[in-house]
Design brief:
The protein is 40% helix and 16% strand. The protein is built from 14 helices and eleven strands. α5 runs parallel beside α6 and α5 packs across α10. The radius of gyration is 20 Å and the shape is globular. Bound molecules: pyridoxal-5'-phosphate.
Amino acid sequence: MEQLVRSCYKKKSGYVFAKKAEDIAREYGMSRIARLASNENPGPLSPAALEAAEAALRTVNRYPDERVNVLMNALRSTYGDYHFVTGVGMDGVIETIIRTLVDPGDQVAISTPSFSFYALAAMGQGAEVVTVPREADFSVDTKKLIKAAKIAKITFLCSPNNPTGNATSTQDVEEILAGIEGLLFLDNAYVEFSGIDYLPLMKRYENLVLGRTFSKVHSLAGLRIGYAFTPRWLPPWYQRAGTPFTVNSVSAAAAAAALGDKEHAERFIAHVREWRKRITEEVKYPVLPSDANFVMIDVAPHTSDAMVEELARQGVVVRSCRSFAGLEDHYIRVSIGEDWENEQFIQVINSL
Ligand SMILES: *Cc1c(COP(=O)(O)O)cnc(C)c1O
């Protein structure tokens, strides 16, 4: 029966997941693993979010609110009078926006190397994917991107970029917005760690979407909830294209409460800034400048996979960057974890 499966899925491999800490622990007989592969907040969720989630759990005999008002209201009271859409993680938002705008054969442009899901989701919709490589220092050549993305329905740009860690300036983003005909999806999964504010651009451009997630700074990765700032015209069409009741009531309630706990986020952001600096100073390989809660490290002459394997053997899970198309084979991506995890990482990598 497998002849029934679409050829695009047979030709390309799917999303590459980080190796599971439990599997590594079993494989090497270890009790404690430093988990630095998925850019999560290693700390628990905000107590307010936990309480809201528990209360919402008591209501799950009913379908959730299809307008996700509890979260929409929290977003408006946090950020002001903007337009939002929500989804099952930012991944769900990305998928639904593609479904809303892209017909088979339409172009989708992606600034690479970057997060792999843009291409997978675009391919699933039958798009023609145009990749636009970054410069040698991983900055974005705006002219080159505009030229290649001119007629694309959607252009994906990640800032701060996963996995390279660097951010694109608001001026450069503005130049891109003015130069392309389609929509710019600016993936801001890590923007809280950067100090850059793209929000003023929302009022001035009709073609900008800022993707956000609760999976990183807010400690809610397991609840799968994300959102985006959108232009006014987009939400009604997004609702029409989207899966009904896709955001569940527990996730929506937890996310709304998490937005209110600014201290929870700020504590982690301060921790990240401190450790980015320490890792950059103490690791003996070149650490690239990062505006995110992870750093990319050039481990040449070793290969990405060999280094990841060696670190795993010593109880530290990091991400090999081999699966990021357009990147050479000697980078690893390391999340900022708890103190003991970061210390263990520095000690192990410097001893190799
Ligand atoms: C983690 C991540 C996301 C999405 O995360 P969700 O868990 O689906 O909200 C999106 N973009 C980038 C670049 C990410 O690293």
